[in-house]
Amino acid sequence: MKISIFGLGYVGVVTSAILARNNQVVGVDVNPVKVDLINKGNSPIIETDVDKLIKDGVENNNLKATTDSKEAILDSDLSVVCVGTPSNQDGSHNLNYLDKVLSEISDLIKEKDSYHLVVIRSTSPPGTTEEMIEKYFKNLNVGICFNPEFLREGSAVKDYINPPYIVIACNDDKSIELMKEFYKEVDSELLITSFKEAEILKIVSNVFHALKIVFGNEIGRFCESYGIDGRNVMDLICKDKKLNISEKYLKPGFAYGGSCLPKDLKSFLYLTKQKDVCLPLIGNISLSNEAQINAAINKIQSHNKKSVSFLGLSFKPGTDDLRESPYVRLVEHFIGKGYSVKIYDPNVSLAKLMGANKEYLEREIPHISQLLYEDMDDVMDSEILVINHNFDIKSNIQDKKYLVDLS
Question: Inter-axis angle of helices 195-225 and 230-239, to 10 degrees?
Fold first, then answer.
């Protein structure tokens, strides 16, 4: 393939160096120093294996660099945009470089008769690509793809060649086929998604990485205060691939509850106070959990109706445990607000409730027996249906019902 790379920063240089192994690549940058370095077979960045790849690419006449955008566009079939999107003072992405390059590419593509694919790899907020299509590429013979990069400094070449997956969002089928060709030498699953999902994926991934680093460091500080080796503790945590390092507990849903998580979190925070250890992230977990409950309350109240049925009451599906159930919190709130409330949960039966569960029920909602129904059909007449567990109610829903899915 004939490929032009716009922006010879970190991502652009790594991408150019790797693609030049088997493609004709021209790198484009406004900085003549970077252009000159690459044309002499030298890397403008320090990164494992990149210097050799650039040297080989130049010597094999597969790689060159230029400041001339027109030359690059007219002599390529596919352009990869890797310009920087640094932070503004308010924290937002500065899209000036991206906007300028896409405007320039758009004008140059108008001089071509052949189809041209533009691949955007610059990190940008959701909605950016669609805005750029509308602004610069509408009615042009062009494909647009957003393809987030997940390169780590120090291991970028390995990350590019062996990624966890490849994510693309394209505006037409031809773009998808060209991207498959583009990545034919990379042995990884190719996932096709929407522009906004692909854009936010990179940002969310980095937020998650930051979260993990801070969590690990907070556990380290806590363990150190008790004379425990925090690295050993986290090594043991990471060995559990079934729950700890897995997709479990990482899907959007509703607040946590039950007898274990709230209890042990409170105990952990008590221990931190004993040693006067500051753990802001862990210390605010319960605050975030409360925000999730409040968001659900606001969502239900926003419909301005006064009858609501809750399908599911226990703290999670497959159990009758009501202790610290966030759904009990919801029921409490709406009873207190004068709503007509009905509840259906086949696992919660007054005849079977015993011990701590029965005590909790009687303490939190003593008149629960008047709200529980054994037949789902008996609760389907409420104006609002709140799905707390994974119940199949499609056949029971009428068009005028308001459905709030918290499962």
Answer: 140
Copy the structure tokens of residue 253.
């849903």
> Which helix (H) or strand (E) is 317 found in, with range?
none
What would the mean pLDDT of 328-349 be, rounded to a whole number? 90
- The structure tokens listed for 375 are 């037949």
Both tokens assigned to 75: 């002599």
Q: How far apart are the first and last CA of the chain?
A: 47
Detail the DSSP E strand segments found in 164-259.
Answer: 166-170, 190-192
CA-to-CA distance for 58 and 234, rounded, in angstroms?
Answer: 45
Spatial distance between the Cα atoms of 62 and 157, rounded to a whole number of angstroms: 18
- Give 188-214 pLDDT, tens digit per residue: 999 999 999 999 999 999 999 999 999
Q: What b/e string do you get for 224-250 counting C-beta neighbours within 10 Å, with b at 16 or more?
A: eeeeeebeeebeeeeeeeeeeeeeeee
Nearest of 331, 352, 52, 15 to residue 156 by alpha carbon:
15
Residues whose CB is less than 8 angstroms from the CB of residue 229 and which lie 6 or more positions away in sequence, other chains included: 223
pLDDT band at 341 (very low <50, low <70, confident <90, very high): very high
pLDDT digits over 129-187, tens only?
A: 999 999 999 999 999 999 999 999 999 999 999 999 999 999 999 999 999 999 999 99
Cβ distance 87 to 123 under 8 Å? Answer: no
81: pLDDT strictly greater than 60: yes
Give bridge partners of residue 160 from the DSSP assignment: none
Whole-Å CA distances, 108 to 5, 75, 118, 141: 15, 11, 12, 12
Strand partners, 256: none
User: Tokens in use for 2?
Assistant: 């004939």
Alpha helices, H only, 186-257: 195-225, 230-239
Q: What's the pTM?
A: 0.89
Q: Which residues participate in catalysis according to the annotation?
A: 260
Q: Which candidate, 361, 261, 356, 256, places its Cα nearest to that of 315?
A: 256
**Structural domains for the chain:** 2-193 (3.40.50.720), 204-283 (3.40.50.720), 289-405 (3.40.50.720)
Given a cut of 90, whether residue 317 has pLDDT beyond it is no
**How many CB atoms neighbour CB 43 within 10 A?**
20
In whole angstroms, give the CA distance from residue 205 to residue 209. Answer: 6
| Structure confidence at residue 396 as a pLDDT band (50, 70, 90) | low
